[in-house]
Amino acid sequence: MKQSIQLCSAVLLALFTALPACAKEKDKAEHVKFQFNGKDREYLVQIPGSAAPNTPLPVVVLIHDQGGYAQDVLKYWTSFASHQGFIVVSPESTSNTMWNYQIDGPEFLHAVLLDVNKKHPIDPTKVYLFGGDTGGVFAIPVGFLDSQDWGAVCGIRVIVPTEDYTYFSHAVRKIPIQVWVGDSDDDHPLRVMTLEHDAFVKAGFPFDLRIIQNSDANYGNVYDQVNESCYKFFMKNPIPAPGAPYLVQAGAGTAAPAAAPAAAPK
Question: What CA–CA distance (Å, rounded) separates 134 from 110?
Fold first, then answer.
């Protein structure tokens, strides 16, 4: 009987010890529908409940895989974003089989963030893109074509088609890029990733290639490491002031101009 009481006490102690951590996970993603170019579009957004209402926050836009959905990538960021205090937004592509530059490109992504900005002010100098695999294949060229509106792009297992290198010349600024790869990934060979790194650097883009040893860099297994590193990389690479022009024009971040930016991961 005494042993049972001790066991019960241990369980209760563990439960109550876990409560503060659980409390930090209370932020929930909101499913939003809005009109863009006369069509219904959707995105998921999580705004940290701990943030002061008028404090502009950094935002990371998550580009899901082609063939996937917004929730597939958002789920790997919700806890980290909640703890660090930044906004995460995961738009849905028009067709989950592909991202289309004409209907899912910069104008659509701008419209998503303008809608988010109505819910909570965005810091127009701290706006970033993340994409894994084929999501990154879309995100990085968007960074070229719309470089004045994103501080940096981060991705994992991203092989940009060499024909997209023609977009290099369209970049108004040399947007910083970080890409993760495993040294044991047959689908994204390190040799190819190194050639990609060299091509980007030769074109003048800051390109941080991160190699995970003894790993195929499956995102579901390494997301903690990748997300924390990407966010640190993001915080080191804001958009030059005053920030993304379309957000500045919309008054993003003006509610509390003296507010301190969200801190980098501890």
Answer: 20
| Measured distance CA(134)–CA(139) in Å, rounded | 9
Task: Return d(Cα 73, Cα 59) in angstroms, integer.
Answer: 15
CA separation (Å) from 35 to 44, 108, 111, 112, 264? 15, 10, 9, 10, 34
* Overall average pLDDT of the 30-34 stretch: 98
Q: What stretches of the chain adopt beta strand conformation (E)?
A: 30-36, 39-46, 57-63, 87-91, 122-132, 153-156, 177-182, 207-212
177-182 and 153-156 as β-strands: parallel, antiparallel, unpaired?
Answer: parallel
Dihedral (Cα; 54, 232, 129, 138), 10-degree rounding: -170
pLDDT single digits (tens) 195-250? 999 999 999 999 999 999 999 999 999 999 999 999 999 999 999 999 999 999 99
C-alpha pair distances (Å), 221 with each of 41, 72, 76, 189: 31, 14, 10, 18
Q: Which element (helix H / strand E) includes 55? A: none
Three-class DSSP category at 128: strand
CA distance 229 to 67: 26
Identify residue 191 by its one-letter amino acid code.
Answer: R
Please give the model's pTM, rounded to 2 decimal places: 0.87
Q: Write out pLDDT tens, residues 87-114.
A: 999 999 999 889 999 999 999 999 999 9
